[in-house]
Design goal:
It holds the Pfam family Metallophos. With 421 residues, the chain is an alpha/beta fold. It is 33% helix and 25% strand. It folds into three domains: 248 residues, 4-Layer Sandwich (Purple Acid Phosphatase, chain A, domain 2), CATH 3.60.21; 90 residues, no CATH class; 73 residues, no CATH class. The strands form three sheets. A six-stranded mixed β-sheet has the order 4-3-2-1-11-12, covered by helices on one side. α1 runs parallel beside α2.
């Protein structure tokens, strides 16, 4: 089979708002307003720079079923750049932007193919010759609850081509618990269809793997839009050749989310605490190479715990740090600053003590070690989770480990004096 170079992206969510931001200012709003568009523009730059044979877009191009004119025009304009370079584009729609949604009647540039609600095959032509065939399907409606594997298998049943067989699908493959179970199917089902490479969308975390000789790729979202989508985001360059399929990640995010966790163990005073934060912010800024939104958390035990827990201190420090680290050439926005800290207590001895505190700590450790703690805690917190989901927070926003740490610290504050041995 021919050697090919493809670029795959998914879950662009063009014109999507950012969720969970605190204390935005006008400069930050301007950057976030452009972020999803800038990210896709960089993906197109990757295609042009790498002289890709095609761009594959795995669904959820737009964030809403009713697509904004701005999002459609920006998407079309970027595709026109690829058309001028004779790079074909294959697009499917997902649960956020199904074909049933309202859209402006725009004419797509030459070389762009948008798949319909039924599985179909489209040849990938290079220099007048078919070098691969792409099978794809778009969501006709917002919810697809049946496995697409049988329809793909039927479509490939009579295929006699000898080129690469590529599948383009927006689905929850393998039942990822963090995403809605749309187009649910197993890895075994898809591996048996006859496709060589599945290019997927829907799951926002990147993953590339091989199963029974078939390659699968989730590129993840191209631009993180809330604190649960932290770290580098972008697209993948895929090289298809005699040795199979190789995948290389390229970051295209315009703004990046990061977590900073700072242990206060060993920190003895305010000046040292301030310097530790500044050092970490500078390290994150240099590593990202782009504007960064950070959530800062202080953890551990030590002499500065009382300062961090003093009413109003973190809010004042956060405000001052924002003015120093964002604007005037700086590009780090401190979104949240909080602390899960305690005074210097000798807690290890409590685990072996026949006291209520010892029994409490042993119970928490036992439940955490059992592997069932997260499911149990989320069940208890179900009402709280539903309340915040109605406010637009992401479905998996609750960090059970964090909430557990906070609960234990609160109880210890009431039960054990600082320094008690």
């Amino acid at each position: 089979m021919d050697r090919l170079k493809l670029v795959h992206c998914a879950d662009l969510h063009l014109d999507s708002p950012f969720i969970g931001l605190e204390g935005e200012d006008s400069a930050l709003q301007d950057r976030l307003y452009k972020a999803t568009f800038d990210s896709f523009s960089r993906i197109v730059d990757v295609c042009l720079r790498e002289k890709a044979d095609a761009l594959m877009v795995g669904g959820d191009v737009y964030d809403r079923e009713t697509r904004s004119l701005r999002a459609q025009l920006r998407f079309r304009d970027e595709l026109a750049r690829l058309s001028q370079a004779h790079i074909p584009v294959f697009v499917i729609h997902g649960n956020h932007d199904p074909l049933s949604g309202w859209s402006h009647r725009l004419t797509w540039p030459e070389g762009v193919h948008v798949f319909g609600p039924k599985v179909e095959a489209v040849p990938l032509i290079r220099e007048g010759r078919e070098v691969a065939r792409v099978w794809g399907v778009s969501y006709g409606q917002p919810e697809v609850r049946e496995s697409p594997a049988p329809e793909f298998a039927a479509a490939l049943a009579d295929d006699s081509g000898d080129g690469w067989r590529i599948g383009l699908l927006h689905a929850n493959v393998g039942g990822d618990p963090g995403h809605e179970s749309y187009a649910p199917c197993s890895v075994d089902e898809l591996a048996a269809v006859g496709i060589d490479l599945w290019l997927l969308g829907h799951v926002h975390g990147a993953r590339f793997w091989n199963h029974r000789g078939v390659h699968f790729l989730y590129p993840g979202t191209s631009q993180g839009r809330h604190r649960r989508e932290k770290g580098p985001k972008g697209c993948y360059i895929l090289t298809l050749g005699p040795n199979g399929v190789e995948a290389e990640f390229r970051a295209t995010d315009s703004v990046r989310w990061e977590d900073i966790e700072i242990s206060i163990d060993g920190i003895t005073g305010e000046e040292e605490l301030f310097q530790v934060l500044d050092d970490r912010l500078e390290k994150v800024r240099k590593a990202a190479g782009r504007p960064v939104i950070v959530d800062v958390r202080f953890v551990g035990r030590g002499p500065v715990a009382g300062l961090l827990r003093r009413e109003g201190f973190l809010e004042e420090w956060q405000s001052e740090s924002r003015s120093r680290w964002f604007g005037d050439g700086h590009d780090v926005w401190i979104n949240r600053m909080d602390a899960v800290v305690g005074g210097e207590r000798k807690l290890k001895k409590w685990l072996d003590e026949p006291t209520f505190v010892g029994e409490l700590l042993r119970y928490v450790k036992e439940r955490r070690d059992s592997g069932q703690w997260e499911a149990e805690a989320q069940e208890v917190l179900g009402t709280v989770m539903r309340f915040f989901q109605r406010r637009g927070e992401p479905e998996d926003w609750i960090d059970v480990e964090d909430w557990t740490d906070r609960a234990v610290e609160r109880l210890l504050d009431e039960l054990v004096a600082e320094g008690e041995s």
